[in-house]
Design a protein that fits this description.
Oligomer: single chain
Structural class: alpha+beta
Protein name: Protease 3
CATH topology of the largest domain: Cytochrome Bc1 Complex, Chain A, domain 1
Number of helices: 32
Cofactor: Zn(2+)
Radius of gyration: 27 Å
Shape: globular
Largest sheet: 9 strands, mixed
EC number: 3.4.24.55
Pfam family, one: Peptidase_M16
Strand order of the largest sheet: 1-2-9-10-8-11-7-6-5
Domain Peptidase M16 N-terminal: 88-234, 574-668
CATH architecture of the largest domain: 2-Layer Sandwich
Length: 948
């Protein structure tokens, strides 16, 4: 899977696509893979730990002497240990987290690949999910414990992590699993054959995005010699032709304890963790081979480089990358601040000039924090009607001006505060820190995580202006066109500093406050939940101690009805985001600055008849942030300029959908499953129709919608975290007081009785290497139906269980046809309407095989039902996954809010989980036969089908 963030563009992950939302975009997650069969039962399971001697794997016996880790240092609650075999160990106990996260980082990425090995680190990451002699299926072993897990590959490292409930032997299981597969994973020819096509399909999926390809082309042009210029996912020829023996050699060379770091975070006993680590990793001998350090150094660039990419698409993209020092270099933090000053919304120089100036639909940037000198990247999506070259020239003018004239103290403080806020919010989750430490360790030392913060707090405007002048030079950049220069300039990038000398005995600060050990069972949550009402708004509050005193609040206001909102569906979507774009007292920038000062985020979204606002902040700032929310709710300004920005962003996304296989397939099925007339808020417009609806949105219309409909007459509030209930209730009374509407609210229902005839529609989209398969059905069922628990489990076995589901096992694991395949089942809380969706990505030439395989597996489910083993695995996996989900406060807040809306409590969740635990194979078979009818499933296949 390719995971994109501001820092991790092109990072590649190994787990399958799981469940798409019924929208024009599929959101890929790493949630929900579970199974039943017990795979590791004790120390005897480690009898096959391997060491490298020459080219042979030698197995050490379970009687090998266990070595206990020796403590090296401790910083802000994180303790470092080291084994004699070279393994580094970090322990981060957090009693407030009812889960434990184990993260193994192996310091090998695409930087370490040689000739003919492009993509080998990533391909090997996939292979480490194929099992060991003791663990035949790694996904299944993790799934049975409700684990949230994944593997990712990047330029400098590969990591494997899992988060499990902190109960039973889960900690020992996870540590033993990582020790086992680090040394004993199957790297077999038959597995390579099937997985190679999966990785190739992942490669093809990336080929569908011109923006991603442009970014990679610029990297390739910027780095003539260093491997950072090569995509982590690799070269198609190398992926297809890699010999299994060469892959094994790569595995034996790099997957050794002296080249790895293990992180354990969450609720656990450090002594117990150290004992287990000593008995597992501690028994692995130190390898006799010596790893060579990579020594290729990119010479100073001798002139501006340019790339032109021509592919089918609808939205032009321009960009520029500049060489910068490594993430460990003292200059890096000033460069990171510089990037924020240029791209952050709404104050960023590029954002204001290009997006608000209506030249670009969006801008983005990233400073790559890498082991060796990396790049600073800027990109922009060109707004319709603009010349891409003009937009690129405008971007470069701003960058050149910044280099020559510098930035202001106000810009520095704003960017610093935003970055500190983002770091502080991330630091409240020990599981997130456990995974984040992989990135810092890959730069050379995990303690850079703290040193970065210290440097960020100390950086000056002179530092930022110095690095801007040093690195934002024309001769140091790669853009979209080539232009010779008479007098080439050179920019020398400093080498990575000597970390031991620079960091020394760094001590860090006092450890942040920790939360309570919270019971996430449904009835325990119910027992601690307080409920009240503020006029027409229902309130659920769950006060508890949290790490860093964080608190989450959700407010949903409901308004209008089917008749009064006719023709206003798109305006309802625009209303909440526009309310965040400034108030009568605060501009958008002032509002954002106030949120940053309170270390808070405020987001908003909505659909027809509902507007939702979400706050995340700290206890001491909550009342102040509620004051800001009051201004947003009661005094929105609806500035014309901001509406223009939102419209061009939405328009750009929709225009990309005109030639996107996934968008068109999902739209086609969704429209058929919601056969309402145009103008009805439940109808699904085509992309072309939606573009017209967006163009018709005007400020005056949004103001009328707000003034006529929005009020506090009907709604729900959920608050979870560290807060004073009486204080919050009092503050909210002030927020919602005397807010009425003359319009009547009536819930808009959706029918589940839609006549659909089985059909396979094909949509031809030229020049798309990846095709999309989507099938959908609708049925009359709500989530309190007696068959609902059985349908959940039936769908879990069919495709929601991802890699070890029937669809995943056959189409991805065995036949290697698709990188992402699965199914999803959802039922309404109040409506008698449920949907079943089936989806897959694949090469167009393989789509008919995918279609046949999906139909065969669905028919097998309806004929045979599920086995007892599958049932046990699905029940345990699903229930433990739900438990893991309830460890996240935003998810608990959403659950409490939904319960208020549906008129129920957490007792409903407890009863549902009991019903799932009591299921039999007969009940599942009866339910799927009763509700799933293949002759009522509409299927759409979209892509460059002419290439079949």
């Amino acid at each position: 899977m390719i995971r994109r963030t501001m820092r991790l563009l092109n990072q590649v992950t190994a787990q399958a696509v799981l469940a798409p939302a019924l929208s024009t975009r599929m959101f890929l997650t790493r949630k929900g893979l579970t199974s039943r069969q017990s795979v590791l039962s004790g120390a005897a399971r480690l009898s096959l730990l391997a060491m490298v001697i020459g080219s042979q794997i030698i197995f050490c016996s379970s009687s090998s002497k266990a070595e206990m880790p020796m403590k090296v240092t401790e910083i802000e609650g994180i303790s470092e240990y080291k084994l004699e075999n070279g393994l580094r160990v970090l322990l981060f106990p957090d009693p407030s987290k009812p889960t434990v996260t184990v993260n193994l980082t192996v310091f090998v990425g695409s930087r370490h690949e040689g000739y003919g090995e492009a993509g080998m680190a990533h391909l090997l990451e996939h292979m480490l999910f194929k099992g060991t002699p003791d663990v035949p299926s790694v996904p299944k072993a993790l799934q049975e414990r409700g684990a949230d897990f994944n593997g990712t590959t990047w330029l400098d490292r590969t990591n494997y992590f899992e988060t499990l409930p902190a109960q039973g032997d889960n900690l020992e299981f996870a540590i033993r699993l990582e020790a086992d597969r680090m040394m004993n994973s199957h790297v077999k020819g038959e597995d390579l054959t099937s997985e190679m096509t999966v990785v190739r399909n992942e490669f093809e999926r990336g080929e569908n995005s011109p923006a991603s390809i442009l970014g990679q082309r610029m990297m390739a042009a910027a780095f003539e010699w260093h491997n950072y210029g090569k995509s982590t996912i690799g070269n198609r020829a190398d992926i297809e032709r890699v010999p299994v023996e060469r892959l094994k050699s790569f595995y034996r060379k790099y997957y050794q304890p002296d080249n790895a770091m293990l992180v354990v975070a969450g609720r656990f006993e450090p002594k117990e963790a150290l004992r287990i680590i000593g008995e597992t990793f501690g028994k692995i001998p130190r390898p006799t081979r010596v790893l060579d350090n990579t020594y290729t150094e990119e010479p100073a660039q001798d002139g501006e480089r340019q790339v032109v990419l021509r592919r089918v698409g609808d939205v032009a993209v321009v960009g520029a990358v500049y060489h910068i020092p490594s993430g460990a270099h003292p200059d890096f933090v000033a460069i990171d601040v510089l990037e924020s000053i240029l791209t952050m919304q709404p104050s960023g120089r590029l954002y204001k000039a290009l997006v608000q100036g209506k030249k670009a639909a969006s801008v983005s940037g990233a400073a790559y924090a890498l082991h060796d000198p990396g790049v600073l990247r800027f990109m922009a999506e060109v707004a319709a009607g603009n010349d891409p070259q003009v937009v690129l020239d405008s971007m470069l003018d701003i960058l050149n001006e910044t280099a020559s004239k510098g930035v202001t103290q106000e810009e520095l403080e704003r960017a610093r505060l935003r970055l500190l806020k983002q770091r502080e919010m991330g630091a409240s989750d020990s599981a997130e820190i456990a995974i984040e430490l992989s990135e810092w360790a890959a730069q050379g030392d995990w303690r850079l995580y703290f040193l970065y913060r210290d440097r960020l707090e100390a950086v000056t405007v002179d530092d930022v202006n110095r690095v801007a002048k040093a690195y934002l030079q024309p001769s140091n950049r790669t853009v979209g066109l080539y232009i010779p220069t008479e007098k080439p300039e050179r920019t020398s990038v400093p080498a990575t500093p000597e970390l031991a000398k620079m960091i020394g005995d760094y001590k860090g600060r006092e450890e942040t406050s920790v939360g309570e050990a919270f019971d996430v069972s449904p009835l325990a949550i119910e027992e601690r939940t307080l409920r009240t009402r503020i006029d027409g708004v229902q309130v659920a509050m769950l006060p508890k101690k949290t790490r860093s005193s964080t608190v989450v609040l959700r407010l949903t206001l409901r308004y209008g009805n089917e008749k009064s909102l006719f023709g206003l569906a798109k305006a309802c979507e625009f209303l909440p985001p526009m309310m965040l774009r400034g108030t009568k007292s605060l501009t958008r920038q002032q509002l954002q600055d106030a949120l940053d000062k309170n270390f808070a985020s405020l987001s908003a979204g909505g659909n027809a008849g509902e507007a939702t606002f979400v706050i995340e902040t700290k206890r001491q700032n909550l009342v102040a942030v509620l004051g800001l929310l009051k201004q947003v709710l009661r005094e929105p300004a609806f500035p014309e300029s901001e509406l223009a920005v939102i419209k061009q962003q939405v328009r750009a996304n929709l225009e990309q959908g005109l030639t996107d296989p996934q968008t068109l397939a999902v739209k086609t099925v969704s429209k058929a499953l919601s056969p309402y007339p145009a103008g009805d808020v439940r109808s699904v417009p085509t992309v072309e129709e939606e573009l017209k609806l967006v163009e018709a949105i005007e400020v005056e219309g949004l103001k009328r919608l707000y003034n006529d409909f929005l009020s506090a007459q009907v709604g729900q509030i959920a608050v979870v975290g560290d807060f004073d209930p009486a204080e919050v209730e009092s503050a909210f009374k002030g927020v919602l007081a005397d807010w009425k509407s003359d319009q009547t609210y009536e819930r808009i229902s959706r029918t589940g009785s839609v006549p659909i005839t089985a059909e396979v529609k094909r949509i031809q989209i030229p020049d798309k290497a990846n095709a999309f398969y989507f099938g959908g059905a609708v049925m009359p069922m709500s989530d309190d139906h007696p068959d609902y628990p059985a349908m959940i489990v039936g769908n879990y076995v069919l495709g929601a269980g991802a890699l070890s589901s029937r669809l995943g096992d056959r189409i991805r694991q065995k036949e290697g046809l698709s990188y992402g395949v699965g199914s999803a089942f959802r039922a309404g809380m109040l409506d008698q309407r449920a949907t079943l969706s089936l989806y897959a990505i694949a090469n167009p030439a393989n789509m008919e095989k995918v279609n046949a395989a999906v139909n065969e597996e669905l028919a097998r489910l309806l004929k045979e039902g599920v086995t007892q083993q599958e049932l046990d695995a699905a029940k345990q996996g699903y229930l433990q996954a739900q438990q893991v989900g309830r460890t996240e406060d935003p998810k608990i807040a959403r659950l409490l809010e939904e319960n208020l809306y549906a008129g129920r409590t957490m007792q409903y969740v407890a009863k549902l989980e009991t019903a799932i635990a009591d299921l039999t194979t007969e009940k599942v078979l009866e339910a799927v036969r009763r509700h799933i009818h293949p002759n009522q499933i509409l299927t759409v296949i979209a892509g460059d089908l002419a290439k079949e």
